[in-house]
Design goal:
10 strands, disordered C terminus, 2 domains, binds adenosine-5'-triphosphate, 274 residues, 4-stranded antiparallel β-sheet, globular, binds magnesium ion
Length: 274
C-alpha cells in the first residue's frame, strides 16, 4: 500500500522533523507508531495522508510515486485515506448526523453538501455507522453536548462513512480516560479488520500499542528506531526510544517484561502471528 524511501522533512527554520524514513506497509496491515514528543510521528502521518509534501525522498502509494500525481489524482487519492485526529475536527454546533455524513465531503459537490445541511442525505448510512460505534441514540444530538469519548466515536463513524482504504489515527485516545481508550482502540482495530482496511495509529501509550498491534514502529529524532513484532520490543529498546523524556520513562516503569499488558483483555486477531 505504502512504500517510503528516505523520506525527509525540514520545516522552514527548523531541524529535520523526519530524517531518512524508509518503510513499507502492506494492504490491510495494522501498525502502531510510538515515540517521544517531537519525534516526527504527526509529520509522518501528514505525509502519509498527502497533506504535507516531503522535502526529499520518495512516497509510493499503491505502486505510484505521489510526486508524479496531478492535482486531480491527488484529490482522488486523498478521499481513500481517512484521518482521525486527537482533536476530532468536528463542528460542535451541528448535530451528530451532519458530522458523520461529512465523511462524504470528498465525494459530494458543494451544492449536495449544502443541501445535506438542511435535509441530511443518507441519514440511514450515518445511523448504521453510529450503531457500529455503539451509540445509535445520538444521531440527532448536538455534537458539542457529547463527552470527549463520544465525540471521538463520532469521528470514527465519520471515517466509516468515508469508507477509505486506509485509516490514519493520530493519537486518537490521548484526550479520553484509560478504560475508554481501550474501548476506542479495540473498536478501531476490529472495524478495520472486518472491513480489511489498513490501520496506522500513533499512540502515546506503549501499553496499548503492544496489546493491540502486531507491528510496532518506534520513532525518535525523525528516524525509525525499531520496527518489530510486539513480543520482540524489549524494555531496553523502549528505554532508548524514550531516553530523556521523563513522562514517557515513567509509563515504561509500569510495563513488565514477559507479561502481556491487559492480561486476557487483548484478543489477538486471526492471521496475525506474534
Ligand atoms: N508546521 C510546522 N512548522 C515547523 N515545525 C514543525 C511543524 N510541525 C512540526 N514541526 C516540528 O517537527 C518536529 C516533529 O513534530 P511532530 O508534530 O511530527 O512530532 P510528534 O512525534 O507528533 O510529537 P507529539 O508526540 O508531541 O505529537 C518537532 O520538532 C516540531 O516542532
Ligand atoms: Mg503528534
Amino acid at each position: 500500500m505504502y512504500e517510503l524511501r528516505g523520506i525527509r522533512k525540514v520545516f522552514a527554520g527548523g531541524e529535520a522533523a523526519l530524517d531518512g524514513v524508509s518503510l513499507a506497509v502492506g494492504r490491510g496491515e495494522h501498525v502502531a507508531f510510538v515515540g517521544p514528543s517531537g519525534a516526527g510521528k504527526t509529520t509522518l502521518f501528514r505525509i502519509l495522508n498527502l497533506t504535507l509534501r516531503p522535502t526529499a525522498g520518495t512516497l509510493v502509494l499503491d505502486g505510484r510515486d505521489v510526486a508524479g500525481l496531478s492535482d486531480a489524482e491527488l484529490r482522488r487519492a486523498r478521499t481513500r485515506i481517512g484521518t482521525i485526529y486527537q482533536r476530532q475536527n468536528l463542528v460542535g454546533r451541528l448535530r451528530v448526523v451532519h458530522n458523520v455524513l461529512a465523511g462524504n465531503l470528498g465525494r459530494w459537490s458543494t451544492a449536495t453538501a449544502l443541501a445535506s445541511l438542511v435535509r441530511p442525505r443518507g441519514a440511514e448510512e450515518a445511523a448504521r455507522a453510529l450503531e457500529q460505534v455503539g451509540m445509535p441514540e445520538k444521531l440527532w444530538a448536538r455534537t458539542d453536548e457529547l463527552s470527549g469519548g463520544q465525540q471521538q466515536r463520532v469521528a470514527i463513524a465519520r471515517v466509516l462513512v468515508q469508507n477509505p482504504d486506509v485509516i490514519l489515527a493520530d493519537e486518537p485516545v490521548s484526550s479520553v480516560d484509560p478504560s475508554l481508550a481501550v474501548t476506542i482502540v479495540s473498536l478501531l482495530r476490529d472495524l478495520s479488520h472486518e472491513r480489511r482496511k489498513t490501520l496506522l495509529m500513533n499512540l502515546h501509550s506503549v501499553e496499548l500499542a503492544l496489546a493491540y498491534f502486531p507491528r510496532i514502529v518506534g520513532i525518535r529524532d525523525g528516524r525509525i528506531h525499531f520496527d518489530l513484532a510486539p513480543a520482540r520490543v524489549t524494555r531496553e529498546l523502549l528505554a532508548e526510544l524514550y531516553a530523556g523524556h521523563r513522562d514517557d520513562e515513567l509509563q515504561l516503569e509500569r510495563l513488565q517484561d514477559g507479561t502481556r499488558p491487559f492480561g486476557g483483555a487483548c484478543r489477538p486477531l486471526p492471521g496475525f502471528a506474534e
